Amino acid sequence: MKIRVERDVLAEAVAWAARSLPARPPAPVLAGLLLKAEDGQLSLSSFDYEVSARVSVEAEIDEEGTVLVSGRLLADICRALPNRPVEISTDGVRATVVCGSSRFTLHTLPVEEYPSLPQMPNATGTVPGEVFASAAAQVAIAAGRDDTLPVLTGVRIEIEGDTVTLASTDRYRFAVREFLWKPENPEASAVALVPAKTLLDTAKALTSGDSVILALSGGSGSGEGLIGFEGAGRRTTTRLLEGDLPKYRTLFPTEFNSVAVIETAPFVEAVKRVALVAERNTPVRLSFEQGVLILEAGSSDDAQAVERVDAQLDGDDISIAFNPTFLLDGLSAIDSPVAQLSFTTSTKPALLSGKPALDAEADEAYKYLIMPVRLSG
Asked: In this structure, which long-range contacts are made by residues 252-255, counting pairs with CB atoms below 8 Å and at least 24 apart in sequence?
């Protein structure tokens, strides 16, 4: 193999393909990045039996060929190279990377031992890249981090015709986002449970393209299935998680005794300040009265904080407490200048949604349900 490629193009492609390489690969070859040069294109691939990634970039090819090298080492090298064209060539069991006056010689790994990448499932539909990235970020924050409960580490993707619904939960909050897309089949119907981290990383990486192709195999949430994403010359697949999330639609209340409306920015700043005295896993108390929200944290035996923020309240006064991190996650996810909190009682989950203005309707596309913390006494 002998190729020449622009440094920035190579560095970005290597970083993306290497992002999912396992820290402790089950086999040494799985730490490798597969470089294949043919037909004026350089493709870079990684695979750990769970997630595969493949990206293609234009390159000047003097000799076609394939080589397998340490992915993380190549990524580190590419980041550090001067801004000059990069030449990569192979000679026996060695690969050479030359850029300006810099020269690196790498040991290669046995290409014949590298597993074949899974086939991309057939395209199910397309969605604008920015919509997909925004939706994934809004929902992934509520996914669990505990690998002993793998179902809760996933994001549920439900496809019904031209509507896609993403949902996730860690048992303490539930995030749901709906968006429209262009299905290949107008009657499309499918459910899949995708690892939240993979979905989030993939969605971020594909925002540079106009649209993202979602490709779902089998049309069901079977653990043997795959889901694929493709856009901007990049392609990734991941195995689906087995199981499904709890039936969440019945958890979201439809009638409320109180609805509070607060400007998001001062609300966020107040929660952050008051939470400074909240010890680990202790809540921030919110007391809503006509025209004002009082935030409190801490106890009489320790540091305390109190702050008042302007708020509109429609309905009964209410005092309720939340984990401040979970509350701040939701406020950042609504991505709106105004936040709306809807309550039934102080012991039942509250519904957080965003509004473009104080007197506007709440955005129904994204909903964040958050469990309150019971206060002693």
From this structure: 252/174, 252/176, 252/351, 252/367, 252/369, 253/342, 253/344, 253/348, 253/349, 253/351, 255/344
